[in-house]
Amino acid sequence: MTSNEQFDIAIIGGGMVGTSLASLLSASGCGWRIALIEANPFLATDTTSNYTSHFDARSTALSHGSVEIFRELGIWNQLQQHATPIRQVHVSDRGHFAGSVIDAREQGIDAVGHVLENTWLGQVLANHVQQQTDIHCYSPARVQQLIPQQQGARLRLDYQGITVELQCRLAIIADGGDSPLRRALGIETDIKDYRQTALIANVEFSESHRGVAYERFTDQGPLALLPLGETEQGQRAALVWTLPPAKAQHHMSLDDAAFLAQLQQVFGHRLGRFVRLSQRQAFPLQLITACEQIRSGVVLVGNAAHFLHPVAGQGFNLALRDGVVLTEMLTEVHRLQKAPGELAGLQTYIERQQRDQALTITFSDRLVRLFSSDHLPLIALRHLGFISLAALPIAKHYFAEHTMGTAGRSPRWRASGFETESS
């Protein structure tokens, strides 16, 4: 066993949420000593120069607000090399109204958001944190034990076959929706089972997507197609198809041609013919929210704090905004020469971000319930909703704000530091 290592902040989980938060904390200029602990090995820092797109890769849709955060961090130019802009979002209800369009130009921006393959996004973020002198990466490493203490927490790691003990003044848990550390700390969760399964795959079609993302609602669940291919002439998209479990199991058993035929029937021919399908994956869908996001010396972030339905693509974008507000609060605490793990400061973070969290979670949840039902009153409500989106600018603006990740509180972070509410 090595001697104790001392850190100001330890982040457990080096995925996209953990690396983004580590980057934000490092950029704050507070000089914290940060430990980033990841179970999987980080790739070497020169791997991005050889990156090539892979047809089977999973993707993430970054909202306009998230793009601005990465721009301020100074890494958007690199991320943009393999990003596909979303110029429009087309929302429709199968078999009824033509739907509504959210257009970036109407919102005064270049793109509503961008779609990136997770591999590329993860590599750029991992490379960035490895280049920061104030971030010490433990990878591959697993936390065997987290013991809360009066001034932070003590961590015991299995790091490359060696037991390492760390002391930190704040432990940030970012180890996923099935968070082992959340369970170990006895933090309970509220779980809403949607009784749905998400089928995830990539598809190729015969016509260009023209930078349009499609959100199509059916009586069995929503279907989303996010444009891929880095330009508006691309002919690929990331598919998220939500279905009842039995229906999803049936679709998983189909061969590629039969699956694409079913997809064609539900989606239509806006993109021509579906001609190619990647590997398929299926995930049961739940809304999971931690009953406690903070304790003295401990914070839960990302899916460990709130695991959302993917219908509106808000999970990672919300986690990124949480990270900005958490860093804002910790920066203020640092200026007051207080410990980052003090409960009063962490409570301030929750109070500042609770509106954004509540709005985003409620928005996603209501979309699922309203647009996954064949119950006649709910069908009537969603038809009225589409009429409102088409006829009422304020309703369309509300929907667009959530899509772009600008609803609720908009963090005012800048690379030179963090502007607080009072500044």
- Domain count: the total is 1
For this structure, what is the CATH homologous superfamily?
Answer: FAD/NAD(P)-binding domain
The third-level CATH topology is FAD/NAD(P)-binding domain
CATH class membership: Alpha Beta
| Overall 3D shape | globular
Instruction: Give the strand content.
Output: 25-35%
User: What's the architecture in CATH terms?
Assistant: 3-Layer(bba) Sandwich
Query: Count the helices. How many?
Result: 11
The low-confidence runs, each spanning 5 or more residues with pLDDT under 50, are 375-400, 407-411, 413-423
Helical proportion?
25-40%
Terminus-to-terminus distance: 46 Å
Rg of Cα set = 22 Å
Task: Write up this protein.
Strand 13 (212-218) and strand 14 form a beta hairpin. The chain has helices at residues 16-27, 64-73, 76-79, 118-130, 180-184, 245-253, 256-267, 315-335, 343-371, 376-391, 393-404; strands spanning 5-12, 34-37, 59-63, 83-86, 88-93, 100-103, 113-117, 135-138, 141-149, 152-159, 162-173, 189-205, 212-218, 221-228, 236-243, 274-277, 281-290, 294-295, 298-300, 306-307, 413-414, 417-418. The model is unreliable at 375-400, 407-411 and 413-423 (pLDDT under 50). The protein contains eleven helices and 22 strands. Strands 5, 6, 12, 13, 14, 15, 16, 17 and 20 form a nine-stranded mixed sheet that branches. Strands 1, 2, 8, 9, 10, 11, 18 and 19 form an eight-stranded mixed sheet that branches. The chain has one domain (5-191, 286-413): FAD/NAD(P)-binding domain (3-Layer(bba) Sandwich), CATH 3.50.50. It has 423 residues and is an alpha+beta fold. Helix 1 packs parallel to helix 4 (118-130), helix 1 runs parallel beside helix 8 and helix 10 packs across helix 11 (393-404).
